[in-house]
Design brief:
Length: about 450
């Protein structure tokens, strides 16, 4: 059996290693450049690879192709594979056939990283032999090849879900839905929503689907479609008989006739959206029979995700916050919503069709100055120029942070929450976040 892996990053190399171990004839092809550390791993494992090209005769003879999530369906090589009827799947779909481990799959437009890390933390503290993978950390396929875990918590993007056929998580979470990556879905929001709900398509009566009941699109989908899974809702707006809700400043999770309760002010993570993330993660812990005391302790000592509302430093009474992972309007909405002091907002990058009007009321209420950080900031200027007192354009992180420092006064917050992708000036959102933290430390 010939396995061709498109993309020589973390998921590609992990898949190649698992494929080799299972006796496939493996070939890795990357249209970009494969990083040195991955080249080395492939060579040590005797796996053939190429980069900066796709050689068709070495690819179109595949029995199965694993496509890395970053490669769009409209890539010419992918189209040719589909025309030939060759199965093109995601890393998750390839790896799941080689493990008996239970998986918890987590998707959504925002909050999925935090919810994934929090769920992993709860299960690990509860003594389970648990792995973390998917869109985060070490490749799932790579971990399956080493076969070390009984349970995996997987962060799944819509792109990974597009490439599943038989994959079925025992517990699935959809944190929320908002328009994101629409460039990959022909600018059709419904196609993107359908992608997210693929997470539940193979689930049966023994499985669980945990969803945000305050989310309009999620509730609409559930009214118009069916899932065999047991649906567990959570909400911060309404009281629910079953699932997660708020009562008298307590987080209440009522699951399988068991009530878990905890004061909201004891949660380690701040902000309304994090109450929801906590409800979803707690539901998983309850289903996995983790002791209530352990859940409480874990929720109160959890350290959040890097680049997600991460407090960097307080300098001369000004708090600097790194929210580089906010690559869409909805994520930045959460960030601005959780600000309690006058804010200098650093924003900009590659716009994925953003509608900034949704942020207007928050900007009016909380933002005193805007520092644009991107190649093209025209749309931001058109929207906010008359709303804030100061608006400045910059093209480097160091400059952006220095200007933000000048605008900010004691008691203010400087928030990097770009609302956009990072590819115009940075490698990725991690690079952008690290540069921000370095610039703050150098003030």
């Amino acid at each position: 059996m010939r396995l061709v892996v498109l993309g020589g990053g973390e998921s590609g190399v992990g898949t190649a290693i698992l494929g080799k171990k299972k006796g496939y004839d493996v070939f890795v092809s990357d249209f970009g450049k494969i990083k040195d550390n991955y080249r080395e791993v492939l060579s040590i494992n005797g796996i053939k690879w190429e980069d900066e090209k796709h050689t068709e005769e070495l690819i179109l003879n595949a029995d199965v192709v694993m496509k890395s999530p970053g490669i769009p369906d409209k890539a010419p090589i992918v189209k040719k594979l589909v025309e030939k009827g060759i199965s093109v799947i995601s890393e998750i779909e390839f790896a799941i056939q080689f493990t008996k481990a239970m998986t918890i799959g987590i998707t959504g437009s925002n909050g999925k990283t935090t919810t994934t890390l929090l769920t992993y933390h709860l299960l690990k503290q509860g003594g389970l032999n648990v792995g973390l993978g998917g869109n985060i950390g070490k490749s799932f396929a790579w971990q399956v090849a080493e076969d070390k875990h009984d349970v995996y918590v997987l962060e799944l993007s819509s792109f990974q879900l597009d490439g599943i056929i038989n994959y079925k998580p025992h517990i699935a979470i959809i944190t929320n839905l908002s328009p994101d990556h629409l460039d990959r879905y022909n600018y059709d929001y419904n196609l993107y929503i359908a992608s997210k709900f693929r997470i539940t398509m193979n689930q049966d009566e023994n499985d669980y689907l945990i969803v945000d009941y305050d989310d309009v699109e999620i509730t609409k989908w559930l009214q118009n479609n069916t899932t065999k899974a047991n649906v567990i809702p959570f909400s911060i707006l309404k009281e629910l008989e079953n699932g997660g809700s708020i009562k008298e400043e307590n987080l209440n999770n009522y699951i399988n006739n068991e009530l878990f309760t905890m004061p909201i002010n004891e949660l380690a993570l701040e902000g309304k959206h994090n109450i929801k993330n906590a409800m979803a993660a707690t539901a998983v812990a309850q289903l996995m029979k983790i002791r209530k005391q352990t859940i409480r302790e874990s929720l109160s000592n959890f350290q959040g995700a890097e680049h997600r509302l991460e407090k960097v430093l307080k300098i001369q009474g000004v708090q600097y916050i790194n929210d580089s992972k906010a690559t869409n309007v909805n994520a930045t909405f959460f960030a601005l919503d959780s600000m309690t002091t006058p804010t200098v907002w650093i924003v900009g990058g590659v716009d994925k069709g953003n509608d900034y009007d949704e942020l207007m009321s928050l900007v009016r209420e909380k933002v005193k100055g805007i520092v644009c950080l991107g190649i093209d900031n025209q749309k931001l200027f058109n929207t906010f120029e008359n709303v804030v007192d100061v608006m400045v354009e910059t093209t480097s992180m160091t400059e952006a942070v220095k200007i933000a420092e000048k605008i900010a006064e004691k008691g203010d917050t400087v928030l990097l929450s770009p609302c956009c992708a990072s590819f115009d000036l940075f490698e990725n959102y991690e690079d952008r976040g690290r540069q921000f933290k370095n610039a703050v430390h150098n003030l």
